[in-house]
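User: Mind token order:
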Amino acid sequence: MDVELGCADAQFSFQLAQAHPERFVVGLEIREKVVEANCRKVAEAGIRNLAFGYVNLDVDLDRVFAPRSVDRFHILYPDPWFKNRHHKRRVVKLELCRVMATQLRPGGELHFASDVYEVALEALSELEAPEVGALGFTNLAGEWSFWRGNPYPAASKREDTTIKRGQRPWRIRYRFDPPHS
């Protein structure tokens, strides 16, 4: 199962589900109206391997999936929260990594992308922390390195816009291998 956290209009989730009918794709979003609109689109398109849910990641994610049931988490172009007083709202934090570490299957992946270098660098810093490494996350591009290119047959609208502007997406990929598996 692939899970897009903060899926918004879910272009990535739709494309991924259509490119991989053998995978089940779930998009999670905090805005209920967006979830409802995505559910309508799924029903209209008759896509059977795609579902959406309303979730506040900071509060609910630890109760959404069974342990070791997720193949890949995708965090794509999260809100940058530029003001210092709002940095606590940034998505990639130790607490989220701990939750993902319980839900990812061994060999699973965390895939992150941003068009804002500072946000990507902060996410990389969180993921390179010894506490996260101890959970079993390993950077697929090497320590403190970004991944080049999109390894998936899908892209978010934000990624499309970033590339059209001639900007670089800052992508991070981590493999999860729990220390006691």
Observations:
- Residues 32-45 form the longest helix (14 residues).
- The longest strand covers residues 104-114.
- The CA atoms of residues 136 and 178 lie 5 Å apart.
- The helical segments are 11-19, 32-45, 57-60, 94-103, 117-127, 130-135, 157-164.
